[in-house]
Each structure stands twice: as C-alpha cells, then as structure tokens.
Amino acid sequence: MAEIRPVRDDAELEHWLALRNELVPDDAIAIEDVRSWMEATTQTHLLAFEGRELVGIGHAVLDPWRADPVVQPRVAPKSLHRGLGSALLAELSRWAAAQGREALLAQVEIGDDESLGFAERRGFAEIGRNLEVVLDLTGELLAIDPPVGVEITTWAERPELVKGIYEVYREGVVDIPGEEGHEVQSFEDWLAHDLSGSGDSPEWTFAAVADGKVVGYSKFSLTSAQPHTAHHDLTAVRRAWRGRGIAGALKSAQLAWAKEHGYTRAVTNNEERNEPIRRLNERFGYLPAGGRILMRGPLVTEP
Known about the structure:
By secondary structure, the protein is an alpha+beta fold. It is built from eight helices and twelve strands. Strand 10, helix 7 (246-260) and strand 11 (265-271) form a beta-alpha-beta unit. The longest helix is centred in the N-terminal third of the chain and has 15 residues, at 84-98.
C-alpha cells in the first residue's frame, strides 16, 4: 500500500517539484514559481510513497476567480496501474470538499487517451480545449506598428498606467471563450495574483495607450526553469478598440523584447473557440504544439 500525505516542509516541496518536472519536462517550473503561486492561491501538494520511494504526486489549486479547484494527480511510469492515481484523486477530492467545493477541474493532454479514459470513467466531461502554439524567435519576426494615435509602452516605463491596465483586464477577461463565468477580481486581488508573481514584471507587461488611456495590454509569464522560452499570458483590448491592429502591435512589441533578451521561442495557449487570437498567432507564424482538454467532474472520494 502506498502512503499518501501532504508536503510537510520546504525540502519535501523540492522533492515534489523534482518529480513534477521529471514527469512534465516541457512544462518545467522553478521553486520560486511554486512558492509565489502558494502565496497567491489556496493549494495543496501531495506526496505518494511506496516504501521510501516517491512514486507519485498530487496538486490542487483553488484560484480566487474559479468556483472549482484544478486538480492533477501524477504517477511515475513504473508505478502506473496500481491504483495510485485513484488514491491521489480521492485525497485531492477530500481536500476540495474541506474547502466547501463540490466539483473538480482537470486538464488532460490532447492525445493522452489513457488519462482521458481515467477521467471519463470517474465522471469527468470535456468543457473546453486549450491549443498550444510555438513560435521560433531565432528567425525574422513579423513587425506590426500600432495604429495612428496609439503608443506601445511598458508598465515599467509608465507605472501610473496600472489602474488602466486593470480596467482592460476587467473588460477583456469575461470575453474570452470558455471564461464567461470568470469572476472579475478586485484591483488588489488582480495585482497580487496576476502581476506580482515570480514570473511577472513591469518590464515585460506591455500597454497600448491612446489619448492617455490604456486601450490594451499584454504580458509574459516567465520562469527560470525555462530560460529560453517566453510564455505569453493574457492579451486584451478594450471592446471599442478591437479590430484596429492593437493586439498585433502589442504582440509584435512582446516578441521583439523577448528576442532582444535572449529568448529563442515563444509559447502560448488559447481556447480553441478564440478565433481572433488564433488567427493572429497564425499570422505571426506560430505552429501547433498540442494542447490540453479542460474537464469538469465530481468529487471522487473512493479510490
């Protein structure tokens, strides 16, 4: 029988992270990312042992803007098909129940039929798909100038713009396909959760400004665990300013910054129903690189 228990201290959190990054090397993160995320959200981290060997991990995070926690049980390949995944999911479900939650969210890699079947057999159903695309930054990049009267700057250059960036967030986030039920955070919560993490910085938060008003913004979320990969975060434009090329100009400025600072690839994930941003990414030359199925299901309290 495996022993499953929460992470107890910093050393165990390092062990949790090491196995996580071993199991999903293309999505590696650094310990500072984990700690930053823990400060901003409600989370649990589980360890699964067979004897003294760490053979599985679990993770659940309750973001302040979501009704349901996102859970992820992971098992080392040599320990698959022994009931560990079910046992981890049961422990994560019990944690969610203690938070007063009645359902779970999970993400399954597109093409991972075994994990998809595992989720479906436990009552999970697809509610959306995020498609990943990648751009090689070592070649020539498409340059898009902002429309007349619009300036592209950064939060670092114009710190007074942060309230205007927040107003764009408020308008833009609820228009993302699949995020219709997204709870709009207060300014203070948004600043803490979206702009103050280990991967966030005013230096790589870009704003489009017209007549002194922020009309769009975009940002990266970077990690020292992937020093050559720039991960896009949210790109949003005010409704009244859409269709004028502002998103393209913001992305162009982002990519130029990333290339100048030594990044060799840019990665982004977009909901498959988000046609405008997908068309824009195709214009820049991003290529498909898989994606994840977002699923929702019940608490599973029995392994």
